[in-house]
Amino acid sequence: MTVAYWCLLIAALLPYLWTAAAKATGKRYDNRDPRGWQARQDDPRSKAANAAHLNAFEAFPAFAAGVLGAQMAGVDTNWIAILSIVFVVCRVLHGVFYIAGKALLRSLVWAVGFLCVIALLTLAALAAV
Prior knowledge:
single chain
């Protein structure tokens, strides 16, 4: 189960990686007004990194629920680990593809990551019956 918990930690930290990328690619960062600063950015990479940041926050709760629910329901830890690793790889690639402007690849890895969450939640539901 340790692998899945490491994946939870990585997934929890990913939004901060993408927001750091947004700040690094934008024009002179203003810490007194970070949201206003981001709204004024016209660099497409900064906008994309910010969007990846928001999407990473949106994806995390369902993933965390899936991992913890599967673990509590007694799902085979190998399945939990595999699905968790695939999810994290997809989420990293999602941010990379977002910043690189590769919309089709971004959507593809988003979908695979989403299917991992659905699989975790489904396995948990089936194991709890």
